[in-house]
Amino acid sequence: MTNPLFYAKILLFGEYGIIEDSQGLTVPYSFYKGTLKFSATDSDFEKKSNEHLRLYAEYLSALTLPEGYQLDLDAFLKDIDNGLFFDSNIPQGYGVGSSGALVAAIFEKYSLKKYNPDTISKVELKDLKKVFGLLESYFHGTSSGIDPLICYMNLPILIENRESVDKVSIPASLEDQKGAIFLIDSGMVGETGPMVQIFFEKMKTEGFRKTLKEEFIRYNNACIDAFLKKEMNPFFKNLKHLSVWAYEHFKPMIPESIYKIWKKGIDSNAYYLKLCGSGGGGYILGFTRDYEKAEKMLHGFNKEVIYRF
């Protein structure tokens, strides 16, 4: 493969819940992508990216990776000296996996052992997830490894629990249908670290822990199950519960620009919103049975349809 593209990812379900062992469902999103290239122009963007790669290479040289997952760091450093940079249009701080795509691209190019995503076993997926967690922890302090794994595999992934992930088929997107999953741009960048910190503070409260486990995780897992089976009535019923729960309990993570339209969706049943990633900014996910109607109600917001049903 020459200059393979690594797509962004979207976590449809599982934000915060996967920290507490809920299921998650994540899909590649080809609108945004990144690839490793050699600089020809020496633009500011390319220079900055090249410098970031050098700092990252320093981090990697001090990292001990499990047997069989080593990287050819000499080749990586040599390429950095020759102007390597990461050419990407994936927005940072939007919950669509900008660092995940970079980690996946580096692993694909410099891993001493080569893998074929189509034939990777479930056991290898579990090991790769751990390795990717180590590689991505440079960017977030800690990482589950899920984002780079999705970007690397470029396939929908079902997160079964904290330890186990598997490849999964999702129903095909049907372009002529009324229903849609879409992204809304909140107009501001979100930072993962502070949002996750708020979540862990909330987890210190017994009441919050209880409702997360008994309600949020139940609705979240039911949504995934119904979506994969294409059972739209139970899907939207649980989705509404999920949206209401998030409105009541994840308010600090919901960008202020989104409060009113979040509530409007619940009250009208025209669409339901949920966090895309850790929240605080970036994208918000929307689900509707009638996109035309939802679009009119969300006039003034930048939206992108990612899936039709």
TrEMBL record:
Domain GHMP kinase C-terminal, first and last residues per copy: 255-303
Q: Which residues form the GHMP kinase N-terminal domain?
A: 84-153
Q: InterPro entries recorded for this chain?
A: GHMP_kinase_C_dom, GHMP_kinase_C_sf, GHMP_kinase_N_dom, HddA/FKP, Ribosomal_Su5_D2-typ_SF, Ribsml_uS5_D2-typ_fold_subgr
| Domain of life (superkingdom) | Bacteria
Q: Which GO terms describe its molecular function?
A: ATP binding; kinase activity
Task: Recite the UniProt keywords alphabetically.
Answer: ATP-binding, Kinase, Nucleotide-binding, Transferase
Query: What is the name listed in the Swiss-Prot or TrEMBL entry for this protein?
Result: Mevalonate kinase
The source organism is Marnyiella aurantia
